[in-house]
Amino acid sequence: MGNGTGLGAVLRAPFEGRTWREFGYLLVGLPLSTVYFSLAIAGVSVGAGLLVTFLGIPVLAGVLAMCRGFGHLERARVRHLLRVDIAAPARIRAGKSGPLAAMGALLKSGSAWRHVLYSVIHFPWAVFGFCMALTFWSYGWGFLLYPLWFWVFPAYTSQSGLIVFQNDDYSFVLDSPLAIVLTSVVGLAITLATPWVIRALTIMDRVLVAGLLGASRLDHRVSELESDRGVVVDTAAADLRRIERDLHDGAQARLAALAMDLGLAKQKLAEDPRAAVRMVDEAHGEVKVALQELRDLARGIHPAVLTDRGLDAALSSVAARCAVPVRVSVDLPARPAEAIEGIAYFVVSELLQNVSKHAGATARGASVDVWKSGERLLLQVSDDGRGGAGLSEGSGLAGLAERLGAVDGVLVVDSPAGAGTVVTAELPWRGRVR
Question: Comparing C-alpha atoms, which of 101, 34, 121 is closest to residue 61?
C-alpha cells in the first residue's frame, strides 16, 4: 500500500497545483530578481560614492527603504505561491522624530541591510532556478508529447524528425517508431522528475527568504517577551480581582456585620446587659473568624513562612493542609530569587489543590520534589489518582503553563488514564540578590 501511495504521488505531482505554483514562482523570480539586483547595486554604489558629501546618507537610506519594500513583495510571493508564511521583521523605530532620525535608524538596521544582501545574492540563484525549471519542464513535456508533434518536421522542413546529433558523416534523427516511443518514455521520466527538481530548487528560496527577509531571533524574542508581558499583566489583574472579591465577599462582609452587631450590643447594654454580653461574645467569635480569613488570604498572596524560612517549610505547610498525605522533598543548594520562589510556591499550591479536589488519590497520597539541575529549578508533583489530566485550553493546568511561560518556564503533564498524574515544572534558576 505504501509503494502504491508513493507511485500515485509521483504520477500526480506534474498535475498538482503545488507544482504549477512553484514553477510559476521560479519563472517570475528571474525578472523580479533582475530588477532587485540592478536597483540595489546601482543604489548602493551611488550612495557609497556620495558619502563624501551629505547626499550619500539619504541615498543609502532610500535604497534600504526600497529593499525593504522588495522584501515585503517577496514574502507575499512566498506566501501565495509556496504557501509559507514568513514573519516580517520588526518595524524600524527611530528614537526621535524627524527625517534625520528616520534615516539614521534605517542605516543602523540590520534587517534593512539583510534585505539589500538578499537583493544581491538572490539574482544568481534566480538565474539558476529559472534555467533549471524551464529546461526540465520544456524538455519533459516536449519529449513526452513528441509522438503528437513530430510530423511538423517532414511537413514543414526537409528533416524527417528531430535531429539529436549531426556532423559531416553521421546524423541521429528521431524518426523511427522505436525512437519516437523511446523519446516519449524519456520525456515521461523527465516530466515525473521535474516536480521534485522544482521543489528542491524552491527549498533554497524558502531558506533565503526566511533567513534574510524574515524576523530575526531578536525580533522573535521581543515578540515573545511582549506576549509574556501581556500574560503577566492579565495574571496580575486576575489576582487583584480575586483578592478584591475575597475581601468583599469574606472579611469585609463579616466585618460589616460585626460592626452592626457591636452597635446593637451597645444599644442593649443599658436595658439588657446579659443580651449585650451575649452579642459581644458572638462578635468576638466573628472577629476570630475574620482574622483567620485574612490570614488565609495573606497566605495565598505570599505566605510569611515562605519569606522567613523558604520553600521547604512553605511547601510542607501547604502539604499539611492537603486532603491526602503528601511527601515533600526539597533539595536546593540555596534559595532562588524571591520572584521565582513565589512562583514555585504558587505552582505547587495549585497542583496540590488539584490533587485534593480532582485526582482521587489513594491513602498513599502524593509527593512533591524540588531540586536544582544546572541553571533550572525543577518541581515535580505526582499522585496515584485517576489520571486523565491535560493542558486543554481553559483548564487550570493551561493557566499554570501560561504563568510559567511568562518567566521562561515549562510545564509538562504525564497523566495516563487510571495511572496517576506526574506534573513537572521547570523554572529558570535566578540566585537571590544579597
Answer: 101
